[in-house]
């Protein structure tokens, strides 16, 4: 229901804010290949996300994207370790299973969940589920990362911890990341490039780094 | 008046409420703050009979409700409106049917008067002409939360229980909801208990706030008292406001 033109260069973090209902999540899901836009082009590097005459996303490009959903979208029937192994197996089938398990354990450790390998997601707190969800997105080492309100519903202390964790993880990972948030405190911590989505389109709200 | 007196509640081996004691006055806007998993939502669910305490007493006005039967809870549930953390709308029902779940006995003509007012209260008056044609999945998450709040307000309950009413909302709408909580309480003398993580708006809206940790109230006071608190967890919660 809106027209958006944007030309972003990575690596780096872009923060996307705006009133509820204005289409932040819709824009993020369009960028992340979750939803197909009704019109317009989505081009990443030289490649188009939606190829003419095809109903599916460009598979090569989709394999370079990672999406972290607001509700985490973890697999409730899988252990924490398997929640990381499963998407990795889908994307990198050629990797030996032993290597995959080690990598998944490494990522659990990185997000401070080493002790939860055999637990199910419902046995974790909200903050721990979010950390698992971040690890699941980042284990695939995508070039384009999309985070839908990663601190929503978390208490201020956990929210600050998640924000710091996300910065430290992204610091070591040269990707173009887009974070949708309603939290102004966290937005400033994540990036100097804060964009506001309004009915009239997308505007750069704050860009201290460029000034 | 709502009173929790040494209320304990466990789920399996996990003790969530470990002797919760607190009193909330009629007409008061009372905020409950705390980390995830400390029993804030569990506290609200006890008030409407969705959970039963293992021990202790829970009073709503002159009724001790901790051992109420389902039939006895009917009146308490009419008295209390609960805004759930998730919107909890019925996706297969249109917006009108969702909004009128608690006022189905009300004549249609009267519903047509009260619904626009409730939608206006939550900043969604523009959607009124479409409520028969649209369904919850067509709304954004923030709009779903606001519609759920309008649904709770429509039966005009005496006590309003809000479980993180502004999670997922932008600042403008979060402020609108907090102003609404305050104005409902002041102008209609409703008691409001709000579980929240939004420190800025909580301090601006609350008459009193409680900080809960490990199933107990560890700090309690007016916004000024909370701002000056020496309790470590409270100070940690306020960190963003000091930066």
Topology:
The complex is a heterodimer of chains A (211) and B (243).
Chain A (H helix, E strand, L loop, with lengths): L11 E6 L6 H8 L11 E2 L2 E2 L10 H4 L2 E4 L11 H12 L5 H14 L15 H13 L5 E5 L7 H16 L4 E5 L3 H7 L2 E6 L2 E7 L4
Parallel strand pairs in A: 1-6, 1-7, 4-5, 5-6
Antiparallel strand pairs in A: 2-3, 7-8
Helix pairs in contact in A: 3-4, 3-5, 5-6
Chain B lengths: L1 E10 L2 E11 L4 E6 L5 H8 L7 E6 L2 E2 L5 H10 E4 L11 H5 L8 H14 L19 H13 L5 E5 L7 H18 L2 E5 L3 H7 L2 E6 L2 E6 L1 H5 L4 H6 L1 H4 L1
Parallel strand pairs in B: 3-8, 3-9, 6-7, 7-8
Antiparallel strand pairs in B: 1-2, 1-4, 4-5, 9-10
Element order of chain A: H for helix, E for strand: EHEEHEHHHEHEHEE
CATH class of chain B: Alpha Beta
> Which chains have the largest interface?
A-B, 26 and 29 residues
Number of strands of chain A: 8
Oligomer: heterodimer
Helix-strand category of chain A: alpha/beta
Largest sheet of chain A: 6 strands, mixed
Tell me the CATH topology of the largest domain in chain A.
Rossmann fold
CATH level-two architecture of chain B: 3-Layer(aba) Sandwich
Distance between the termini of chain A: 32 Å
Q: Briefly note the CATH topology name of chain B.
A: Rossmann fold
Strand order of the largest sheet of chain A: 4-5-6-1-7-8
Protein architecture, described:
The complex is a heterodimer of chains A (211) and B (243). Helices cover 35% and strands 18% of the residues of chain A. Chain A is built from seven helices and eight strands, in the order E-H-E-E-H-E-H-H-H-E-H-E-H-E-E. Chain A has helices at 24-31, 59-62, 80-91, 97-110, 126-138, 156-171, 184-190; strands spanning 12-17, 43-44, 47-48, 65-68, 144-148, 176-180, 193-198, 201-207. Chain B has 243 residues and is of the alpha/beta class. Chain B is built from ten helices and ten strands. In chain B, the strands form two sheets. Chain B has a six-stranded mixed sheet, with helices on both faces. A four-stranded antiparallel sheet of chain B has the order 2-1-4-5, covered by helices on one side. In chain B, strand 9 (208-213) and strand 10 form a beta hairpin. Chain B is globular and about 50 Å long. Chain B starts with a strand and ends with a helix. The model of chain B has no long low-confidence stretch (mean pLDDT 92). Classes of the chains: A alpha/beta (211), B alpha/beta (243). Chains A and B meet through helix 6 of A and helix 5 and helix 6 of B.
């Amino acid at each position: 229901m809106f027209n958006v033109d944007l030309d972003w260069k990575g690596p780096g973090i872009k923060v996307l804010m705006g009133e509820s209902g204005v289409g932040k999540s819709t824009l993020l899901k369009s960028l992340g290949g979750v939803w197909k836009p009704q019109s317009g082009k989505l081009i990443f590097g030289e490649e188009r996300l939606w190829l003419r005459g095809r109903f599916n996303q460009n598979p090569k490009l989709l394999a370079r994207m990672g999406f972290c959903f607001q509700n985490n979208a973890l697999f409730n029937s899988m252990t924490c370790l398997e929640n990381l192994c499963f998407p990795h197996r889908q994307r990198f089938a050629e990797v030996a299973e032993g290597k995959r398990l080690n990598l998944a354990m490494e990522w659990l450790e990185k997000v401070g969940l080493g002790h939860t390998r055999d637990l199910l997601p419902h046995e974790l707190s909200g903050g721990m589920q979010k950390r698992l969800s971040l690890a699941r997105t980042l284990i695939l080492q995508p070039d384009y990362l999309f985070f839908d309100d990663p601190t929503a519903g978390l208490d201020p202390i956990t929210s600050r911890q998640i924000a710091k964790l996300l910065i430290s993880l992204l610091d070591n990972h040269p990707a173009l990341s887009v974070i949708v948030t309603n939290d102004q405190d966290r937005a400033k911590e994540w990036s100097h490039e804060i964009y506001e989505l309004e009915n009239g389109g997308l505007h750069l709200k704050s860009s201290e780094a460029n000034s | 008046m709502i009173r929790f007196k040494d209320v304990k509640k466990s789920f399996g081996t996990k003790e969530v409420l470990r002797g919760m004691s607190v009193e909330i006055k009629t007409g008061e806007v009372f905020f409950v703050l705390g980390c995830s998993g400390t029993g804030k939502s569990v506290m609200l669910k006890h008030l409407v009979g969705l959970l039963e305490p293992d021990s202790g007493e829970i009073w709503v006005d002159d009724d001790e409700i901790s051992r109420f039967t389902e039939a006895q809870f009917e009146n308490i549930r009419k008295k209390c409106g609960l805004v759930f953390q998730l919107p909890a709308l019925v996706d297969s029902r249109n917006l009108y049917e969702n909004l009128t779940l608690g006022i189905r006995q009300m004549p249609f003509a009267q519903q047509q008067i009260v619904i626009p007012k409730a939608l206006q209260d939550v900043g969604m008056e523009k959607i009124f002409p479409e409520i028969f044609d649209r369904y919850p999945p067509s709304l954004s998450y923030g709009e779903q939360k606001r519609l759920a709040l309008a649904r709770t307000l429509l039966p005009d309950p005496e006590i309003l229980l809000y479980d993180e009413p502004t999670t997922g909302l932008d600042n403008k709408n979060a402020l609108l909801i907090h102003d609404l909580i305050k104005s409902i309480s002041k102008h209609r003398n409703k008691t409001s208990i709000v579980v929240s993580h939004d420190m800025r708006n909580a301090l601006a809206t609350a008459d009193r706030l409680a900080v809960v940790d490990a199933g107990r109230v560890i700090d309690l006071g007016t916004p000024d008292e909370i701002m000056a608190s020496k309790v470590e967890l409270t100070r940690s919660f306020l960190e963003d406001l000091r930066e």
